[in-house]
Design brief:
The complex is a heterodimer of chains A (569) and B (277). Chain A has 569 residues and is an alpha/beta fold. Chain A has a domain at 302-540: 3-Layer(aba) Sandwich (Rossmann fold). In chain A, 38% of the residues lie in helices and 21% in strands. In chain A, helix 5 (105-115) crosses helix 6. By secondary structure, chain B is mostly helical. Chain B has two domains: 14-139 and 241-268, no CATH class; 153-225, no CATH class. Chain B has a two-stranded antiparallel ribbon with strand order 1-2. The longest helix of chain B has 32 residues, at 194-225. At the A-B interface, helix 3, helix 4, helix 5, helix 6 and helix 15 of A face helix 8 and helix 9 of B.
Chain lengths: 569, 277
Amino acid sequence: MNIKPIIEFRDFSFQYFTQSEPTLRGITLQIFPGEKVLIAGPSGSGKSTLGHCINGLIPFYYKGESRGTLTVNGVETKQQNIFRLSKVVGTVLQDTDCQFVGLTAGEDIAFSMENDRVALPEMKERVLKAAQMLDMDRWLTLSPFELSGGQKQRTALAGVMVDDVDVLLFDEPLANLDPATGKQAIEIIHDICRDRTKTVIIIEHRLEDVLHREVDRVILIDDGQIAADMDAHSLVASDVLKTHGIREPLYVTALKYAGVRVTPASRAGYMQTLRLSAAEKQQVVDWHNAVQPPPPPPEKPPVLRVEHVDFSYDAGKQVLSDVSFVIREGEMLSLVGRNGAGKSTIAKLMCGFERPDRGRILCGGEDIAKKSIKEIAEQIGYVMQNPNQMISQTLIRDEVALGLKLRGTDKDETEDRVQNALSICGLRPFRKWPVASLSYGQKKRVTIAAILALDPKIIILDEPTAGQDYRHYSEIMDFLRAINERGITVLMITHDMHLMQEYTPRVIALSDGQVIADRSAAAILTDADVIGQANLKETSLYALAQLAGIPDGTAFVQRFIDEERRRGL
Amino acid sequence: MRNALFAAQKLDTPIHRLSGLTKLCCFMLLTGAVMFSYDIRVILCVMAFSFAMLRLSRITYQSIRLMVLYVGIFLLINAVLTFLFSPLYGTEIYGTKTVWFTLLGSYAVTSETLFFILTKMFKYASVIPLGMIFLMTTDPSELAASLCSIGTPYKAAYALSLTLRYFPDVQREYRNISQAQQARGLEMSKKAKLRDRFVRGLSIILPLILSTMDRIDSITNAMDLRGFGKHKKRTWYVKRPLCRGDVLALSLSAAILLGTIAVSVFVNHSRFYNPFV
């Protein structure tokens, strides 16, 4: 082969001026025109930095010291500039809200042409063409407030495709999308690759979700180095995923539990290519039948009742209609549904931020209608998605003590409760540290500790694992489970299917302001109707059950969940 | 949710169809006319015109109620202060002194000063509807495009447009943070002492600033990666080519300005109209 690589790293290292250690070390990597490559790796592995090097944010925006060479289109990036690079490499950022600088979809797509001084008639024509390519020409006049997450992402994509770039770089394209929209995004990206005129690089840690469609290679980055560079089949058959903190596809895990040896010949990189021999299928069936499901635990008394609640922000559009459910003491459950289904609104009603138009909410048997936000917070704690939205004090101890201080709790008791909350959250050694010195996950713990100090019965968490890699996800969730085991009821608003499956036995699904399902996670994740209405997607375990010829897919998923529990994962 | 103050309403009226640049120029021409002249007859004509335009743009009273209230308060304070600081200013201008009655000492209420104050109030009252029309019927991007066309550096114009663009997001974020802080026990009511309220205000502002800084960083990246600031000039997707309506509106506004000047020069021989001699 005599094709020149479009991107070539040769013994490339990079260190940010603000860091004491290099983030990338000795990277040697070639990417060829027309290839579709997945760059995977845990948070902090350097995979985003690698992306920044390709699109020119390094060295033109983030400063640091680099060694070795990196060429894009045959020219050293250092000798180009960010504008020239942006004509070759188009980047779709993970936060499409921030990428959306225009006031309408059309204007946003035109942004790079505006900066290039393209004349108006040509600009309109090219915008329309790019929009048609992505089947979004009907939304050109809509504003970001009117577009869904998936539509915003298409806009961002059209905005880079309008320049006819050679390389498309997707920086964590799935981070802000619900499972169904994420699946569509992967399909759209795949369609773009089909004619092999574009090189596509996807940076993402959710391996299984990206492998919904084929990729040519997966490059695994960890600790600033390339840990693996192979095709998907060999990758999932090896054990590098586990050692580098990337979650392997669920069906692969299930196969391993069943004792099936996964080899490159199993073609297990993608669910749709997986081949199992009759003997292997039997192994899966035997594993499924080996254990009877444990009996359901006895029902505890209710701690919170939502009864026939209606709500609308302004007269006209009903946000919630006739919502009822009961949460029992010590439960850990998920609230799911697509954006705008009313999940956050329910949480706001429970905390008293908004009040129902009709119906009532009872906590511990008492109607919360007459209580102030502050009083409700002593029973129902609310943890926002981003810890930076909650932290207002400089020292950890002060942050955790804030709620008690504002309630005029006496000094000794405050001290006791703060110490207790800090030790539950594993933050006791840090209590005199400034909050700013903590990592994201630790900050999250601080915000949870601050809520726990008030000793609530229930805590509600909004997207507790959003944007976290497997290791941080497990850390946060195991911590929440530990809190739950102390008797605190935990309700989570989430899109994360792994979270539902692994941590919450019960799931409430909302759609258009109504409860459409209130069942076990296994039942929800295998119910096509609910999956469709709540923008989830079918779990690959269900597909595996079908492949192995197990008729009751739901029971198979439940079997898997029980097995994970048993193994203490 | 949209921001109430600058919500560019999507309506299709002759005013909405004008390009942003035209609206800005007309606004400036008419403002020039009203600022130049102290002839109450001319001012009343312009005022009638601007209210007609407000009507034509189908802006509802609902959407500008708050602004009208602020403007009303401003006008009132302005009138009172003008009187307090120079109760005889009218006499200085018009040369006569018709005293109605005397308040304390030298505070005489004269027809001349009242007439002057009235003229001044009408001046503001005729310009403000035009400003509202401009703000309410021009979306932020078009505003930036028009500012840029009259010579504002495009980076400054774009910064303004981005601020308006992200304002609703920041507003929503503020509300969320404030609710979460209230849940922790933050009393935002007037019962708290001023110093406490200041400190508590900080505990909302601090997280807001931090999360806004994160956002700004990402937006800057997104803009850099798409070539913002590459050239000295840029083009604007939302810019509308000038059409017949624009020419008409511009000529009309220019005519009103020239008419005002003509009245001052040929009829009044001064910027003031003097009914007292």
